[in-house]
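User: What would this chain look like folded?
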Amino acid sequence: MDLDVFASAHRAEWDRLDSLLRRRRRLTGAEADELVALYQRAATHLSLIQSSAPDPQLTGRLSRLVARARATVTGTRRASWRDVVRFLTTGFPAAVYRSRHWWVPTALLSTAVAALLGWWIGTHPEVQSTIAAPSDLRELTRPGGEYETYYSSHPAASFAAQVWTNNAQAAALCLILGVFLCLPVLWILFQNMLNLGVGLGLMSSAGRFDTFLGLVLPHGLLELTAVFVAAGTGLRLGWTLVDPGPRSRRTAMAEEGRAALGMALGLALVLFVSGAIEGFVTPSGLPTWARIGIGVVAELAFLTYVFVLGGRATRDGDTGDLDETGRSAEVPTAA
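Assistant: Here's the prediction, encoded as structure tokens.
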């Protein structure tokens, strides 16, 4: 394609579209029809230039022109409570369900790594000595020691807020950093499993494995599941960059990125629940079986939510992405 000839042939159409978009008064019916036709032609021109003879300056001008025209043609759509309900009942669970082949193996493998680290630390005193001095370890693991008082060291509300903020940041990092070929996600996941393994190993070596479970399971089941979902989704996003499948890489990353952004919002709500449990239930005076029971119920409720509502929404065609009115228009790509 001769770009100069092409631009000269169609510049009048682009200028006319720009002129219609700048009109302050309401367009007549004929002008509105003309604007739609010119918008469609400009979108096609943009696609041809991008695929055949990309020119940064011309592509930038046409991209802005097409974006303005689309906003004028389609209008502005405001979010409503219906969108919130749709997100919570179909969009979010569908996105989590679709990622199950990534986060379920991630959860199983990570749990195995944490258990292996806990066994290694708990059965090797020389490893424990590299973590802290024997007197510090005894102070940490004794009844009423630092490991237990950590969960009641601050007022419940502020502690829950702090936990929620930290966990939400970790989940968001997993989702965002997945685009860097998955490596940062694996590091964040390993750090979480290492912390869990250290607590497991030290408390087990002190003969307080039951206390460890009573302190971790009430909030940890739901909290770790949310982290695993975030990590699995981040890994999926990173792999999409490597292998986008039948979609173009740009389209695949846009679709999966939008779904991941929605999952970040949904997981923030899940982590809010786990943070509330950690702040109010874990340090409470409830019997161990009751505290663990609350954690199990919360975990089962989330899994039911994902596999029942999410499975149903996925079978109905929901992918967790925005609906068509909320997505950018897909410009046809020339062969």
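Residues 86 and 92 are 9 Å apart (CA to CA). If you want, I can go into more detail on any region.
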